[in-house]
Amino acid sequence: MDPGHRDGIPYALGNTGFVFNADRIVERMPDAPLDSWALLFDPEVAERFRDGGVAVLDAPGDVVQGALICIAIRLQRAMGIFARRWP
Fold first, then answer.
1. Are 40 and 18 in contact (CB under 8 A)?
2. What are the CA-CA distances from residue 67 to residues 8, 26, 31, 53, 79 (Å)?
3. Is 13 inside any structural domain?
C-alpha cells in the first residue's frame, strides 16, 4: 500500500465560514469590517450586534481556528510583518 508511509491523502476535508446580512450590519455600523474575521471576533465590533444575535458553531475545533487566524493577523500587523489586509 504505502511502504515507509511516504504518501498520504486527506481523510476528510471541509470548510467553515460565517454568514451575515451585510445590509443589516451596515445599517447599524456603516464602517463595519465586512471583509475581516474581526466582524465576529473583535469584541468592540461584536458588541454592537449583541441584541440582534451573534451565534457561533458549537464545534470548538472549527471556531478556534478562525479566532487564531484573527489573532495571528493582528499580531503580524502590530509587528509590521504583514502589510496587506487578509482575510
1. yes
2. 28, 22, 21, 18, 18
3. yes
